[in-house]
Amino acid sequence: MSVFYEKTINTRSIYEGKIIKVRLDTVQLPNGKESYREIVEHGGAVAIVPVEDDKVYFVKQFRKPVEKVLLEIPAGRLEPGEDPEDCARRELAEEIGFQPLELKRLSSFYSSPGFSNETLYLFLARGLVEKKAETHDEGEFLEVETLPFQEALRRASAGEIEDGKTIAGLLMAAYYLSRV
Amino acid sequence: MSVFYEKTINTRSIYEGKIIKVRLDTVQLPNGKESYREIVEHGGAVAIVPVEDDKVYFVKQFRKPVEKVLLEIPAGRLEPGEDPEDCARRELAEEIGFQPLELKRLSSFYSSPGFSNETLYLFLARGLVEKKAETHDEGEFLEVETLPFQEALRRASAGEIEDGKTIAGLLMAAYYLSRV
């Protein structure tokens, strides 16, 4: 047990939504005092860097929380009990219409551990073979865009990409590809 | 106006916390149908990669949402109206006890734009001069740890770091430092 551990004294459910749940925990701090932690529960998601012929596939979609269209690597939420690799294959088919011959897990990380438990499972997909999904998410509108790998990497490195998982994904993929 | 734009038809406040607010928006999708967006509002934060003598400074702290101690670059929430650069200097003093002679903004990005508007302003800090903060966040318990820059980079690249902003920060700093 870490000396920093915060013991839960009470937990109160604030909201049970379709995608997130929100709760307020009363915790005992290491110094014995009480404090509160506002926590957003999320079921986790995958994100995939799809690379073929030295091109990276992206999706552009409107993100209501930031009121903008963002350029992102394909991604999507895990269904309950779904294996992250299966989810990555499903999202690739749904979002860009490809199936990968090779799917390599690069990492899993927390997108914002200060207030949320959302875990992102990050993959590199290569050997892309056309495969349209039979179904799509209701209410998901997106456009596929490709960039040369070096240009994508330049944009991520230079601070021109606004989505955190896309920055981490491109830079980790570049490191991995430089070593295989 | 993007063809993907989602018009807000109704917005309902769910929760007004100290750190987050939660709301449920009813939106009109591009196909005319209605849908819902669960949105976590956050005031934004800074994260800093502090590098001195080829060492990177990290903080280890307990993160209640994931029930673990994480190794992260120094970071903290913006106070209302606070300039991100001022916030970065404040957090460096509070968390690791240094002031930077050079503070370079590397990027700003959204940590999880699918459900939150949290923006992270990312900085590289060099020329660290000792300066203890006069005040600390109540209820913040952390430990400073350093790693050689190459070892930090290896961990971030190899998927051994669990915090998204720390992965993005280290890899962007490495790119920037390789070019100056």
How would you explain this protein's 3D organization?
2 copies of one chain form a homodimer. Chain A has 180 residues and is of the alpha+beta class. The first copy, chain A, folds into 2 domains: 7-42; 45-179, Alpha-Beta Complex (Nucleoside Triphosphate Pyrophosphohydrolase). Chain A is 21% helix and 47% strand. In chain A, the strands form 2 sheets. In chain A, strands 4, 5, 6, 7, 8, 9 and 10 form a 7-stranded mixed β-sheet that branches. At the A-B interface, strand 2, strand 3, strand 5, strand 6 and strand 8 of A face strand 2, strand 3, strand 5, strand 6 and strand 8 of B.
Which second-level CATH architecture of the largest domain in chain A applies? Alpha-Beta Complex
Oligomer: homodimer
Radius of gyration of chain A: 19 Å
The DSSP helix count of chain A reads 3
Greatest chain-chain contact: A-B, 75 and 75 residues
Quickly give the structural class of chain A: alpha+beta
Q: Residue-averaged pLDDT of chain A, rounded? A: 94
Q: SSE string of chain A, helix = H, strand = E?
A: EEEEEEEHEEEHH
How does the overall form of chain A come out from the CA principal axes?
A: globular
**The CATH topology of the largest domain in chain A, please?**
Nucleoside Triphosphate Pyrophosphohydrolase
- Beta-strand percentage range of chain A: over 45%
Look at the structure and give the CATH class of the largest domain in chain A.
Answer: Alpha Beta
Relevant CATH superfamily of the largest domain in chain A: Nucleoside Triphosphate Pyrophosphohydrolase
Number of domains of chain A: 2
Using DSSP, what is the number of strands of chain A?
10
* Gap from first CA to last CA of chain A: 38 Å
Report the major sheet of chain A.
Answer: 7 strands, mixed
- Uncertain runs of chain A: none
